[in-house]
Amino acid sequence: MTRYETLADEIEAAVQRGVFGAGERVLSVRRASRQYGVSIKTVLHAYALLESRGVIESRPQSGYFVRGRANGHAPGGAAGPAAAGSGNPGSAGGSGARRAAKPPPAAPTPAPAQVDVSRLVLSTLRNIRVQDAVPLGSPYPDPSLYPWRRINQYANAIARRHASWNLIDDLPPGNPELIRQIARRYAENGAPVDPDEIVVTVGATEAINLSLQAVAKPGDTVAVESPTYYAMLHAIERLGMRAIEVPTHPALGIDLDALARVVARQKIAACMVMPNFQNPLGFQMPDERKAQLVELLGAREIPVIENDVYQELYFGDTRPSTLKRFDTRGLVLHCASFSKSLSASYRIGWAMPGRFRAQVEKLKFLNTLTTPSVPQVALADYLRHDGYDRHLRRLRRFYRQQARLMSAMVLRFFPAGTQVSEPQGGYVLWVELPARIDSMRLYEAALARGVTIGPGYMFSMRNDFHHFIRLNYSYPWTSQTEAALKMLGELVASMA
Known about the structure:
The protein contains 15 helices and 15 strands. By secondary structure, the protein is of the alpha/beta class. Strands 3, 4, 5, 6, 7, 8, 9, 10 and 11 form a 9-stranded mixed beta sheet that branches. Strands 12-13-15-14 form a 4-stranded antiparallel beta sheet, with helices on one face. α10 (287-298) links the parallel β8 (270-273) and β9 (304-307).
């Protein structure tokens, strides 16, 4: 088939699955061209083909809309196979040409290790909540940047309309309209998914835990990035599994050669990664390496759990592709949430578990029965009626500026030998200090002065990152923030 025929089939398949409902507007020609990585001419040919099939219709000065039948449903028809979306990665953002903080060139641990980082993380998170502390160590985005008041209005209106709620409506996989809106977001970004694969969860944390529980059992070994986001280590620890750390490049992602040696040498039950804007390194894994990672693990039938919670917070022009895009075997368990892009307090996430979908849905039912209904419906209403894309554009622009500003200030105030990461999205900066610095000592000294940081110990089971810290740049820049960074730089200089 030609590219426009493939694109037409892809959009028609999304309509057939209910991602685009009858009477709803599909992507504009320019946006479809950008999101699917094709020319405007190709999109126009595809839309003309869809019009001839009776799938969409053109409305002057308004765009293209899904045609509806008398019963209100979208028209039927035999849709061809849906092609994978292009999802081109965004251009580089962050702090320019400066050298990124690099993890030590250590080999993977020779044997899997027990995981025990929860006590340190819990203690650190509690201290982050100290009143009036400068929250440079917080893992959470600044809540003032998010439309929580508007979402609360929807939630209150729903609560008034429904004095009681039928629990059956909220059993897994979740609220149908929210699932449709999630699927629509992927389709609008050039990465169509099957709504029937989506299982709504209590945040991405539950999605990750359920996915890991579906593919591995206590005592199994799981490969993780090094450094890695501590929620990954928590999931492994909670389920009584063992972890093996694989060196991770600050710009390219997990070391594929090192991972190949690990899976060749021992039995690995699963691999857990964050290919887009990894916490704490902030990189965006190149598409070719994403494809290679999926192929490497797929050849050995090893499931890969993809944490894509920062997917909407990119600094480039378009949302990056996912590992899910390259999965032909159903071995990628894709996890995401609205907690980092829309509302942290509502704790709504989802999993797309591939061939493990039935098992994840069953585990969801056994673990938490349901996900609260009002937050699901409130978020669905917001996505349907409000300017989510407009909110995201403001958020991305702000984070991109903040990343550059904080990087510049760290290099200005900290002693020679300090290096910073070059985040391509998200809201955290990874900082490498001179090797003699102990980040726990720095953490304690800073906390005594009313400033929090994320010590590098939280991101590994080993001591490879004892002289690294993670900083949060989501909060507006103030004189207090600048004074806190200057004070941290002075502490580091005195310790060095």
